[in-house]
Every structure is written in structure tokens, then in C-alpha cells.
Amino acid sequence: MPRMPLRLPVPRPLAALLVAACCTPCAAGSADVATAGATAGATAASAPAQAASAPAQAAAAPLPASAAPPPPPARAGAAPSAPASAASAPDDATRQAFAAWVGGFRDAARTAGIHDPTLHAALDDVHFLPSVIEHDRAQPEFTRTVWDYLDSAVSPARVARGTARLAEVRRDADAAAAKYGVPAPVLAAIWGVESNFGGDFGDVPAIDALATLAFEGRREAWARSELLDALRILQSGDIDRAHLVGSWAGALGQTQFLPSVFLAHAVDADGDGRRDIWGSMADVLASTGHFMQHNGWRAGEPWGVEVKLPAGFDPIRADSTLRLPSAQWTAEGVRTVDGQALPAMSDAAILLPAGVRGPAFLVGANFRAILKYNNATSYALAVGLLSQRLAGGSDVQAAWPRDLVALTRAQVQQLQAALKARGLDVGTPDGVMGPATRAAYRQWQRGAGLPADGYPTVDGLQQLESTPAPPAAAH
């Protein structure tokens, strides 16, 4: 039996102030802004956690972040409370079908090398959790603007808490930074966005959550694979069943690793023989640094910088695929927002997260490395800007266009349908403003004589729909 974690998350006396606009899963193609929706057992179907989030794995996508305050973290030395209430208990038919599924999975896991003691510990008392399915099926109607997300993700309260927490773990953070080349404030920012600096990383039993998702079937192959990896974590002795907890989507620990990511990147930095991303800050920060290094973090380069664009800059050049050295952007008249020389980045792109009316950023390889953690622009900006504040830097200087409202999911589907009716390729109309839709919208903007920034607005949608579709395109 492995030792129980002795170092626990701090209490959450400021929970009401510090609820993060946590991470959001991103569909393949990735959305730009976090959605309001279900959260992980803690902050949100957060980070590399989720059914798909970033370090979550190289394959899946993050889940929507929750707008509601998450439950308190598990207490030290005590098993987490059962998340399902009597009111949401499954019916007899579901329980019987789930038990049969677990029996089949048990056999497959044994064939895959999981030993009987681990199978008994993990599966003898596994429960179907209806709340997990409710979260997984949630399709939030309303999205958040990037500035609304950042207001909570990089709030003054969070910066103050993060500054204090980073000071407490500075030795471990500096050790991880020295080994993996990821600055301590960046590691702390990921920690802050993922679990509010350890204050809320979820108390849902990971075995139960992943078994529920695998049984339900919408993402069976993914959830089944992650469940098998969770059994491997138990078998390794890094943690016991009662303390293998996290988000509703199976994300684990203070920086929300999926089991597959844990196995690939978790580190025993404190030398106690266990990879403990729940209680050991040395392990938490080193594991996060290891993941970031593996996913392309470049030591010595910034994540990005706020910039001022030259007069006449064509917003169509604000494209993540148009990557140039800082020196070339300088030659085109791009400067930092305070007029200084641009930091050295070998392949940086201009980012206009709120269109031409909002702030502009020059982002490089390290911004893209953060996106590997959670593939949403708002998430990567939150981590970058929070790290900047924790390092003593300034907040965003340019004003956000706060008079604009985010399109609802239904409105994005209307926009996609209108673009498609005009012969523009938006992919599958799904209500998500992904790369294909954004490119099509830019193309329409340019043809309509508008700044081609790809940022959808209610006025833009109305103008698009009021313009007759060409007869050929209508077919």
C-alpha cells in the first residue's frame, strides 16, 4: 500500500473570488474562447486533464469550463466523498449493464497486464456516476468573450494568491525551471489556472469517472484507454484507489494530467519513490515542466508580448500560420505596446484575440507549447498573462472592446450556415468558431470591405445574413 499524500491542497477561503474561468476543452480545431459549462471535479473540465485536454493527451480535446463554484478538494488522509447523490442514482437496468461492462473490462485489463490485486482494489466497488454523463453531454449555449475569461483567470485576487503561493513553493519551482527550462512563473500560472494553485483540483474518483465515460460509449475508446492507464498508475504504487481523484473527466492532480499524460510525464522530483501530483509540490511542478519541455517549450524565449501594430496593418496577416522572426515584424513596424524593441522569437505570429478593436500580441513557439496543454487561445493567453503578472510585469495595456458580446452557439451556427450558403467552406456547422469557420468568415469580411480579422460580431452576422447569397452558391 503506497503512502498517503501528506502535503495537501490549501483551503479555499477565497473560493467565491477565485473561481477560475478554468480551462476549456477544445474541439479539434480548437475554439478561441472558453465556454461556460460543466467543470471538472474541480475547476473545469480543465486542462490536460480532461477528456481531451492538453497534457491530457496529444489526441483529445478539453471540456467546457464551469461557471459554478466547484466542490471543495479532498481532505488529507480521508477518502473523497461519493459524488453521486441518491437523486441521481442509476436505475437497476443501468446498474446491471454497467456491472456487465465492468466484468468485460476486467478481463481485458487482466489480459493487458493488470494484476488481480489491482483489479480488485480498482473495480470491486466501482460506481456509475450519472453526473459525469450530464457534464459530458453538456453543450453550453453561451460562450465567453476572451476578456471576460481573463477577468477571472487573471484577476487581482488570483494574482495576489499566486504571488503568495509561488513564494511558498519557490524552491521547488526554481528547481523545476532549472531542469526543464520553463520559468517558475509559467509553471505557477499553469498551476493557478488548472486548480487555483492547488485549492481545487477535484474530488471525483477517477476510476469511477472513466469507467462511466467508457461504459456510456460516446468516447468509449478514449475513456477505456485512460481507464487502463489509471489502473497502471494504481499498480505502480504512486497512489492508492481512494486518493486517485480529480475532475469529472478523469483529470488528475494539481495541474490536471490525464492518466496517459501522468504515465508519460509525471516525475518523482522529491525522491520519495512516488510520482505524487496531488500532494508533492516538487512533483507537481517538475511534472508540469517535463510536459511543457516535451511539447516544445523553448528556454530563453517569452511566450509572447503585447504589441502595437503599424498604421495600415492588414489584419488578415494576424494568422497563426503566418510565422516570422521578430526582426521581420520589427521591419514591418511592429513594436511592443510601450514602444520598445521586440523580444527575440524565431517564428512568431500576430494574434488579435478580440479582432481589430482589441489588444494585439506577438506570440511564438512557447505560446503554442501552452496550447498543447489546452488548445484554446483564451487559455494560453490566461497562462501567459498570469505568468507575466507573477513575474512582476504589467497587465494588458490596450483596451478590450467590452461593448461587444459573444455570439451564442446558435448564432455561430447561423453564421456558419450563412457562410456555407455563400459557397464558403466552414466544415461541419457545429456552433464552434474553429479555424475553418474563421477562415471562411475572414474571406467574407474581405469581400465585404470589412477588416478581415476573423472576429465574429452580432453586427457582422446581421450584415452577412442581409447580403443575398449568389444563386450558384445557394445551391
Structure description:
There is one protein chain. By secondary structure, the chain is mostly helical. It has three domains: 32-77 and 129-294, no CATH class; 304-390, Lysozyme (Orthogonal Bundle); 409-474. 42% of the residues lie in helices and 5% in strands. It contains 19 helices and eight strands. The chain has helices spanning 15-18, 92-111, 116-123, 130-137, 146-153, 156-168, 170-180, 184-195, 206-216, 220-236, 259-265, 281-294, 326-331, 365-373, 377-390, 409-421, 435-447, 458-466, 471-474, and strands spanning 36-37, 65-66, 204-205, 245-246, 304-308, 335-336, 349-351, 360-363. A four-stranded antiparallel sheet has the order 6-5-8-7. A two-stranded parallel sheet has the order 1-2. It has a two-stranded antiparallel sheet with strand order 3-4. Helix 7 (170-180) runs parallel beside helix 12 and helix 14 (365-373) packs across helix 15 (377-390). The model is unreliable at 1-30, 33-54 and 56-87 (pLDDT under 50).
First CA to last CA: what distance?
A: 66 Å
Mean pLDDT across all amino acids: 84
Helix and strand succession?
Answer: HEEHHHHHHHEHHEHHEHEEEHHHHHH
Total tally of structural domains: 3
Tell me about the biggest sheet?
4 strands, antiparallel
Strand order of the largest sheet: 6-5-8-7
Approximate shape? globular
Radius of gyration: 23 Å
Helix content: 40-55%
